[in-house]
């Protein structure tokens, strides 16, 4: 390179440096602005997720409330269609309805109306006690028997806004006999929504499918009965999906809101959970202003430093080289500041440790320098790490990435992910290893949790259906190789639907947990597996077990369920919760034409045989070799 060309290059260097400083400042401002906007979006997405959870929960509550009303209505309809509307029947039903109304807080009223519109449960009353009898006309004209959820109406007796759920009952000849009506108060729903504290200026609204407001918190009395059918949520085609986020300016109070709507798949209901957008973004806005002030200060500092740098560049090559060295050093520190950077010598002792070691392992850099680099690694992980370090010292590997457990100053243990790279002298000989380590403990915990969720039933804690299917295939293959037997028990809780209907789903869940605990107690060997097969049905896999052993386990399970003494009024035979058990055994090596499904089908047939024989018993299907053709065709 000629001297003239070199001088030209140096003359342009300050301009290039100035352009670099400007570009750096612009990049920092741009990245900071983008990150703040991303943080804003994250706040809004978090609010949408929270509103989605609230909307789903409250929609489920509304559906459950209507199901509760409907369960009572169905019973009354059945009684009326069997016994008719004689005064004695009505008197009994009137007493029953009053008792049920007092027992269940969410029920506002229960009534029976004959085919002429006379309110049979209120003697002497002809005509409606509601501001709208649309539900009566609906059942009068429609032969459908499913429940009908009507628009919110006002009770003329106490002035309460209510939602109606009604069913038609027929006369013996199939003609219209009248209506059984149940109502739930708008005030009850509004009070229930008060439990959800999602923001100072938040709101929860439940509307009918035609846009009439059913309940709202806050200001329920001001908005119930108002129509919002002309609003985008009911008009825009893009918002007619089952659920979704919805940003809008409220037509009720003029507040801009972030919300999530959920349409019920079973009833004409729409739940809208909202939070004030201004209130939601206020903390972010305050933090963003503070952070941007710091960024501006940093940019100004960089600009000043850049100006000094440009002036220094004009003083010559030596000063420029010094500045480049400082810049490289600054960049190295900046890039490694968030993770722990260490340098390991050939004697496997730490030669350099970055200040971030305090955050990662709890020790200061000065306390670690000179100590063995691998001293804190878990003994189970140490051999693998040692082998990689030895290979790098020998020059067989240039870089490696590995994860291991490492002790901390607080006597705890963290998972570290380390990226290691060999460093060499000018002559090419290896003189050490540089490691950049980061704490991935939370990531490991999440991985463990996800693995558990993938194979475990959340209600009972037993293996789920997916895990059962995997283990069944594994044990079948093992039994085939070992020429051993394999047994399966299928356990089904008797009359469980009736139990749920009589005692409620929470009690049903508790019942399933008790049964699951009993079954799990019988898994006395490492290879045994208890699983929830589906609903109230359980399965128990017993490797290397013959028919007698299988029957013995099944009998113990039946006895333990009896001894649990769970009261079951609908189980007339015993008065307590019982189960039917079907068992099957096989030797896969002798049933080559069979597969894993054959064992399940055999146990299933035995289970159904136990049910047909009167339930609360164990039935064994016998060896599969006696139930299906052998490989030889016999």
UniProtKB/TrEMBL annotation:
<dbReference type="GO" id="GO:0005886">
    <property type="term" value="C:plasma membrane"/>
</dbReference>
<dbReference type="GO" id="GO:0043709">
    <property type="term" value="P:cell adhesion involved in single-species biofilm formation"/>
</dbReference>
<dbReference type="InterPro" id="IPR013656">
    <property type="entry name" value="PAS_4"/>
</dbReference>
<dbReference type="InterPro" id="IPR050469">
    <property type="entry name" value="Diguanylate_Cyclase"/>
</dbReference>
<dbReference type="InterPro" id="IPR001610">
    <property type="entry name" value="PAC"/>
</dbReference>
<dbReference type="GO" id="GO:0052621">
    <property type="term" value="F:diguanylate cyclase activity"/>
</dbReference>
<dbReference type="InterPro" id="IPR000160">
    <property type="entry name" value="GGDEF_dom"/>
</dbReference>
<dbReference type="InterPro" id="IPR029787">
    <property type="entry name" value="Nucleotide_cyclase"/>
</dbReference>
<feature type="domain" description="PAC">
    <location>
        <begin position="396"/>
        <end position="452"/>
    </location>
</feature>
<dbReference type="InterPro" id="IPR035965">
    <property type="entry name" value="PAS-like_dom_sf"/>
</dbReference>
<keyword id="KW-0812">Transmembrane</keyword>
<dbReference type="Pfam" id="PF08448">
    <property type="entry name" value="PAS_4"/>
</dbReference>
<dbReference type="GO" id="GO:1902201">
    <property type="term" value="P:negative regulation of bacterial-type flagellum-dependent cell motility"/>
</dbReference>
<feature type="domain" description="GGDEF">
    <location>
        <begin position="484"/>
        <end position="623"/>
    </location>
</feature>
<feature type="transmembrane region" description="Helical">
    <location>
        <begin position="292"/>
        <end position="310"/>
    </location>
</feature>
<dbReference type="Pfam" id="PF00990">
    <property type="entry name" value="GGDEF"/>
</dbReference>
<feature type="domain" description="PAS">
    <location>
        <begin position="326"/>
        <end position="396"/>
    </location>
</feature>
<protein>
    <recommendedName>
        <fullName>diguanylate cyclase</fullName>
        <ecNumber>2.7.7.65</ecNumber>
    </recommendedName>
</protein>
<keyword id="KW-0472">Membrane</keyword>
<dbReference type="InterPro" id="IPR043128">
    <property type="entry name" value="Rev_trsase/Diguanyl_cyclase"/>
</dbReference>
<dbReference type="InterPro" id="IPR000014">
    <property type="entry name" value="PAS"/>
</dbReference>
<dbReference type="Pfam" id="PF22588">
    <property type="entry name" value="dCache_1_like"/>
</dbReference>
<dbReference type="InterPro" id="IPR000700">
    <property type="entry name" value="PAS-assoc_C"/>
</dbReference>
<keyword id="KW-1133">Transmembrane helix</keyword>
<dbReference type="InterPro" id="IPR054327">
    <property type="entry name" value="His-kinase-like_sensor"/>
</dbReference>
